[in-house]
Amino acid sequence: MSVSRISTAVARSSPRSLRAAAPLAVSTQQQRSMADASTSHAGFTSPFHRGTGNARDTTVMPNWGKYKTGKETSNKVFQYFMVGTMGGLSALGAKNTVQDFLVNMSASADVLAQAKVEVDLATIPEGKNVIIKWRGKPVFIRHRTADEIKEAEDTKWESLRDPQPDTERVQKPEWLIMVGVCTHLGCVPIGEAGDFGGWFCPCHGSHYDISGRIRKGPAPLNLEIPAYDFPEEGALVIG
Ligand code: FES
């Protein structure tokens, strides 16, 4: 026998008075539940239940007054102080981080020592060449004579392959300082040689003049001028 048939049989077998009283008991129970719900917050003055009956009054906001200090300016001063302090600490941390990084990445003292070479110019007589090694490359130092200076300055440089006046290539006319690497394929030219009284590269026949400018041969550019300075009379620092 199915469940529905059993329930129908039980209903038929129960007395008629019981069947009439059942809905009444249910409705009484529902009324009690609603009454309990409506008075469940009777002892609690919630700011969100101030509307009529049990309806919410959404325009009422809680009062946070007791959490305020009473002075708006003191709050702002405190906020500014905290923001300023945190900003200062962050900047200090960032500065230290960057500084540590730069100190770690910078060249050590021995590398810096190799980066610069000091030369005593008093040891180089006029009309002579000296070759020194700087950062693994040869550097030519030429103590030019007055005739060589005149020749270098009088050359019509505008029509040269790599046009450059002599005054742009020297700081002091008597001292010509150049990287001794041919601009063609990197050979080391020979001094006091070639058709122009300067340097000659035997690898493929490039001729440089007494200012180190390319005058003949396959090299495309003048000999390079390195960074240098005369910190005092008779001293030269390359690098
Ligand atoms: S490397 Fe000097 S001419 Fe070729």
UniProtKB/TrEMBL annotation:
One of its GO terms (cellular component) is mitochondrial inner membrane. Its main location: membrane. Pfam families: Rieske, UCR_TM. One of its GO terms (molecular function) is metal ion binding. It is found in: Membrane; Mitochondrion inner membrane. SUPFAM superfamilies: ISP domain, ISP transmembrane anchor. Its EC number is 7.1.1.8. InterPro entries: bc1_Rieske_TM_sf, Rieske_2Fe-2S, Rieske_2Fe-2S_sf, Rieske_Fe-S_prot, Rieske_Fe-S_prot_C, Rieske_TM, Ubiquinol_cyt_c_Rdtase_Fe-S-su. Transmembrane segments: none annotated. It is a single-pass membrane protein. The keyword Cell membrane does not apply. PROSITE patterns: RIESKE (PS51296). Keywords: 2Fe-2S, Disulfide bond, Electron transport, Iron, Iron-sulfur, Membrane, Metal-binding, Mitochondrion, Respiratory chain, Transmembrane, Transmembrane helix, Transport. Residues 169-237 form the Rieske domain. Belongs to the Rieske iron-sulfur protein family. The Rieske protein is a high potential 2Fe-2S protein. This is Cytochrome b-c1 complex subunit Rieske, mitochondrial. It comes from Cryoendolithus antarcticus. The lineage of its organism: Eukaryota, Fungi, Dikarya, Ascomycota, Pezizomycotina.
